[in-house]
Amino acid sequence: MPVQTVTGPIGLDQLGRTLMHEHLFIAFSGAEFDPTALFDRAGFINEAVKRLRQLRTEHGVRSFVDPCPIELGRDAGMMKEIAEKSEMNVICTTGFYFEAMGLPIYWRARTAEEIAELYIREITQGIGNTGVKAGAIKVATGAPDITELEMKFLNAACIAQKATGVPIITHTQDGYNGPEQQAAFAAGGVAAHHCLIGHCCGNPDQNYHKRVVDGGSYIGFDRIGLHRYMPDETRADNLVKLVRDGHQSQIMMSQDRHCGWLGKFARQVPPDEQAKIDALKAQGNWPPPYTYLFTDFVPMLKQRGLSEAEIASILLDNPRRFFAGEALPKA
Hints:
By secondary structure, the protein is α/β, with parallel strands linked by helices. The chain has one domain (3-133, 219-324): TIM Barrel (Alpha-Beta Barrel), CATH 3.20.20. 41% of the residues lie in helices and 14% in strands. It contains 11 helices and 12 strands. Strand 9 (195-197), helix 7 and strand 10 (218-221) form a beta-alpha-beta unit. The longest helix is centred in the first third of the chain and has 19 residues, at 41-59. The radius of gyration is 19 Å and the shape is globular.
């Protein structure tokens, strides 16, 4: 089964080492009306290309999945240009964000079938007039519960997944509702191994992680380096526990980082956090690089006893099996 990238289909053997949840550019709805929110498109593309080349040449990453929701500034044409210039396989998604921070009014009024029609079109025909096809479906839910409106978009994702065969990548807010997402997918007739339950590392509870992996999905430790949500020491401890319990084949590692952001954050930033950001900007280190996973987090895993082979398999074998749609090996 070929994998659809923004520059066209590739074979599974071309995926290589893969980061399963990163972002190039984010723009929350409304930022375009802020006169101080300036965007140098050419300059951003150059910076993104430089960062992806660094990932490829220094750490052997061949594929970069950007599950940017439709309404968060997804720009398929720009993704394609960056992919071509960086020689990186970039995979984009179709799908919307969660209710509290997304879901445009127009699409809130549509039926699950109408939403699914959009998803299927973007997967099979392309996004707008860009010619770029989505290679996966994005789903997002908030906390503490999945809302009725979010459930409609989950149902739409199920319809589109069964029609196209592409996998589903999810956002969970603060590590809530992973098992509930799994239940919705099962009710919609989607096999668990077609789904990656994202941001589970935002929940420190190992029993929560066990519920997700026992549910048969992939589990996302995909906010590595986002210390605001969880210390990486906790992430590393919990990831190693999953490996030792026999669930290595279900783990996906990534960082949920971005290269560019339009305007201010979609929250008020405390003064101490803003001071750190300003200091990093002055050093040319903001946004933080995508290489952190390899320079800082992988050594933490090795300190806890994981081998090079185990880490390599998580980054290579698991994404390939996920996009192939293969059943999980037994734990």
